[in-house]
Design a protein that fits this description.
434 residues; disordered N terminus; two-stranded antiparallel ribbon; 14 helices; Glycosyltransferase; 18 strands; Glycoamylase-like domain-containing protein
Length: 434
Amino acid sequence: MKITKSFAAVSLVVALLLSGCTNADPSSGMKSVEEPLLEKESRSSFDFFWKEANTDPASPGYGLIRDRAPGNPSLSSVASVGFGLTSIAIGAERGWVSRKEAEERVIGTLKTLEQNASHRNGFFYHFLQMSDAAKADGSEVSIIDTAIALNGAITVGEYFGGEAKELAENIYARVDWEWFRDPACDMFYMSYRDNEGFSGHWDFYAEQLMLYFLAAGSPTHPVDPGMFYKFTRHSTSYGDGEKFIHSWFGSIFTYQYSHAWFDLRGRADKTGVDWWHNSRIASLANRQFSIDQSKSFKTYGPDAWGLTASDAPRGYEGRYGAAPSGISNDQHLADGTLAPAGALGSIAFMPEESITALKHYYGIPELVGNYGLKDAYNTSITPAWFAPDVIGIDKGITLLMIENYRTGFVWKWFMKNARVRKGLEAVGMSEGHK
C-alpha cells in the first residue's frame, strides 16, 4: 500500500473520469471506484441466506437459516437468522430478489421466531432444529445470539414496515433482560442451560456492546444503562501502534459485530471512548500481527489478515485471534489458519486494506465456492487445507459490513428504530464526537 500510494491516487482519478461509477465511503467521506468483487462476494453471501433456509411455508421452522453449509443440514442458529434477515433487506434493495418475495420470507421468518422458536423469557436457544424451530439437543440459551436475531428483526421491521415491524417489536418487547442479569455483579450472564442454570459473565470487552444498547432501550424490560460501564476495559497496544481496548482472544469479529448494525461513528461514551475508532485500531493491529506472523505462517501477510474464530483443520476454533489478548497477552491462538471474513468484516474501518485482501482471496481458486469465499483456509501446512463449509455468521458479517461500506444501508434502516436510539442515549453514547 505505501509503495504504490501516489500511483493509486492517480489511477483513481482516471478511473472515476472514465467509469462514472462511484460510491461514498462512509468511513472517510472519500469517493472510491466500485470494486466488482464486492458485488460478487456480497451476492454470493446473500445466496447462502436465501437458499440455505427452510422454504416450506407449511413448516413450523419456515424461514430458519442453516448454521452452515453443506454441513449439518438440520441445524439452524438464531445468529445466522439475524444476519439472514438483514441480508434479505439488502437483497431486496439491490434487486437480487423482488421486494414482494423478500417481504413474504421476512414475515414468515418473524412469525416463526415469535410463535414457534424455542425460547426462555424471550431469549432464544442458540441452535434450533431447521424442521420445527425446537431447541437442538444440548443447545444453550444465548443472550448474544438472541441480540443478533433482534438486530435482524429490527432492521427488516424498519425497512418493510407494516406487519414486519409489528412482529419485530413483539419479539423485542418480550425479552426480559433483567432475567439474564446477575445482580451480584451487575453483569449479564453469557448463557443458560436447562437443569444447570446460568454460566459465565460478559465481564471483559468483546462483541457484546449491542446487549447494553438493546437492553437499555427495551420498551418493556429495560435495565440500568450503567451496566455498560461494568465490564473490564483492558487497554494496551500492539507494537508501536495506538493503545486500544481489546477482547480476550483478540478475535477480530469481536470488534465488528455490534458495528454491523449500530452506527457508532462520531459517538463516544461517558468515559470518552470512541468505540468506532477503537475497532479501527484493533483492525490495524490485527493486520500488523498477521504481517509479523508471516515469518512463521505463510498463510498470513499484508494481504491476508484478520484472525478470527472460524473452522480449522481439526474442527471449529474459537481462540483464533491476534495480540494483544487476555491480561498477560497469552490467550490468542495463531496456527496459520485464516478466515476471509476477518478482513472483510473490517472493510468499513479500513477499506483499502480489506479490498486488497478480498482480491488476494479470490486469487486462490480453492478458496472460492458456491457461496463465495469459504470459511477458512491454511496454506502453512502440507497439504494445504480449505474449509469444506461456509458459516452463516461469517458470511453475515462479510455481507453487512461490505454493504455499510458501500451505502450505509444497514445503519440507515436499523438506526431509524426509536428504541435503538433511546438505548444509545440512555447508555450515554453522545453524538458530535470528533
